[in-house]
Amino acid sequence: MDGLPMGRRAFSSTSPSFRATARVGVAATGVALALLLVVAASGCEPVPDGTPYDLVLAEGQVMDPESGLDAVRWVGIRDGRIATISQIPLAGADTLDAAGLVVGPGYIDLHAHGQDEENHRLFALNGVTTALEMEVGTAEVDEWYREREGQARLNHGVSVGHLGVRIAFYDDPSDFLPSGPGGYAVATDEELDTIRSHVRRGLEEGALGVGMGIQYTPGATRWEVLEVFREAATHQAPVFAHVRGFGVEEPGGSVEAFLEVMGAAALTGAPLHIAHLNSMSLEETPRTLQMFEEALERGLDISAEAYPYSAGLTSIQSALLDRYETAPDTALERLQWAATGEWLDRESFNRYREEGGAVVLHLNTPEMEALAIEHPFTAIASDGRIRDGVGHPRTAGTYARVLGHYVRERGKLSLMDALRKMALIPAERLQEWSPDFRDRGRVREGAWADLAVFDPETVEDRATYAEPALPAVGFHHVLVNGIPVVRDGGVVEGVAPGTGIRAGSWSPGS
Ligand SMILES: [Zn+2]
Q: Fewer C-beta neighbours within 10 Å, C or N terminus of the chain?
C-alpha cells in the first residue's frame, strides 16, 4: 500500500484535488514517457513482440482491496484478463482515459434478481460486472445458464432455489415467490426426499449454491431446512438464506430466525450466507450483527450482505405479507404500492393482495441501515430487480449510493473498505465452491478484467421510490472480461461479454 487512504485524499476539501495529485504523478514519470510504446509494466518488461495490449486503462488511481494497492497506474488488458499493472504508460490497440478516476474491481452482486437486459444495463451503470441470483435461484439450473449463453451483458450465475423446487414440486401458481402450496404445504418424508434430490440435481448442474427463502415457505419445517442444509453440506456448497422472520416480536422475530440458520450451518457444516441482514433485522440490527460476529469467532463459515435502503420490496401475495392480514390497520401505513407510489390502507391492501404485484415496505430506519452497511464484514448486495421500470431504487442505485452517500458524505466507510465489501468479500464467499471467483473481485495481474472506473467526487445514485429506474451517475467505464459495457458514461450497445459462471465441479456434459 502506498499513499494515504483514498477516502481522505480524494474527499478532503483542503487537500489538493485528486485530479491534481494524479497529474503530478504523471509529470514525475516524465522520463519514462519517452519509452511510451516499448516499455511496460512492473519490472519494466518490454511488451512481448511489441504487440500493444487489447485495451489500456490509462493513468487511473488503481485500488485493489486485496493487496491494498492504491496508486496511479496504467492497466494493460489482453484476452480478457489484466496482463499488467504498470507505473509507466502502456500502448493499447484501444485506450480509455482514467485520469482523475478510480480504477477498482467491478462489483459482484450476490443478490441480483434482475437477469435481463433492462436490469443488466442499470447494474452496469452502477459498476456491477457480475450479477448473481443466489437467494431465490432457480429450479432448473442448466436451462437457466443455457438461456443466457452468449447473450448477457454481465457475468451471471444462479443457485438452485429451494423456493423454485417447491413451486415446481407442489405446482404453485407463482413463478417467483410462492403464493400457494409451494409456500404452505408441509412435506411428507417421501416428498422431502424428492425435494432434496432436486436440490442435489441443481448442484450437479453447476449451481453456485443453494438458495432459500424460508420466510416465503412457512410450510417448510425446521427439519426440512436442516435437510436442505445437509444436502448443501454434502457438496460443501454455500446456502444463501432469506431467514424465517424479522423484527423484535417473538416468536417469529430476527433473533430466532438467525438462530435457525446459524444452528443449521453449525450442525451440518454447510457454509452460510445471510441475505439482506438489514431488512431481516430492523431494530434488532445491533443484536444480529453481534450474533454474526460471535458466529465468526466460533469459526462458523458464515457471511452476510446488506443493501443501503431503509425500505424493502416484495410480492404482496407472498407469505411475507401474511402478518398484515391480521395486523392493525395502522401497520399498513408503511406499505407503498410500487407501480403507482400510493400508500396502502385496508381496502387497497386487500384489493392488491388479490391482484398481485410489488409492494414497498418502509420498515427500517436510516440508523439501522447504516449499522448494517458500515459493518466491516458485511458484503453489499442489491436485491435488485426492475420490471418495465417498476421496482425498488436499490436496483439502479445500490453501489453508487454506498460510494456517494456512505463513503463521500457520511465519511465513516473508507473507499477501500467499500470496494472490499462490494467486490472482494462476495468473491471470497464463492471461490471455494467456484474457483473462477479467485480471479474476480480483485485488480491484480492475471485476474479477469472486470473493472469499474468511476469519479469518487461525483458518483451518485439517482433512483428513487417514485423513479426507481433512474441510472446512477459517475461510472465512466465498466469492463466485463476486458470488454467495455459502459464507456465514457454511456451504455455500449450490442455487446454481451458476460460469462455464465458455474461451480468448479461442473464441466460441460457432466
Ligand atoms: Zn429476500
A: C
